[in-house]
């Protein structure tokens, strides 16, 4: 995905948008929900929504800093 200003996104995102942002397959997001893992989510009836803040936090928690740059 191209670098985009977070301010352009709504507060809650559907699974298609989260898949696009994170690069995770829709089925992976669904499997994570089924297994109680992954990004926290909210259900409104049948609709699943992810908080933009939770998506950003999830991605930041997976940041890898190369060893040469850590010092």
Task: Tell me what you see in this structure.
The protein is α+β, with helices and mostly antiparallel strands. The protein has a single domain (6-70), classed as Arc Repressor Mutant, subunit A (Orthogonal Bundle). The protein has helices spanning 15-22, 26-34, 52-60, 67-70, and strands at residues 12-13, 42-44, 47-51. It has a 3-stranded antiparallel beta sheet with strand order 1-3-2. It is globular, with a radius of gyration of 14 Å. The termini are far apart.
Tally of DSSP helical segments:
4
User: Structural class of the helix and strand makeup?
Assistant: alpha+beta
Distance between the termini: 30 Å
Q: What is the count of structural domains?
A: 1
In one word, what is the shape?
globular
How many beta-strand runs? 3
Topology overview:
Elements: E1 12-13, H1 15-22, H2 26-34, E2 42-44, E3 47-51, H3 52-60, H4 67-70
Antiparallel strand pairs: 1-3, 2-3
Can you describe this structure in just a few lines?
The protein is α+β, with helices and mostly antiparallel strands.
Fill in the keyword field for this structure:
71 residues; alpha+beta; 3 strands; globular
């Amino acid at each position: 995905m191209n670098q985009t200003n977070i301010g352009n996104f709504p507060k809650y995102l559907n699974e298609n948008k989260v898949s696009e942002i994170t690069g995770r397959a829709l089925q992976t997001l669904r499997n994570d929900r089924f297994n109680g893992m992954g990004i926290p989510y909210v259900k409104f009836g049948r609709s699943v929504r992810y908080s933009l803040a939770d998506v950003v936090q999830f991605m930041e928690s997976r940041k890898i800093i190369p060893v040469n740059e850590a010092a």
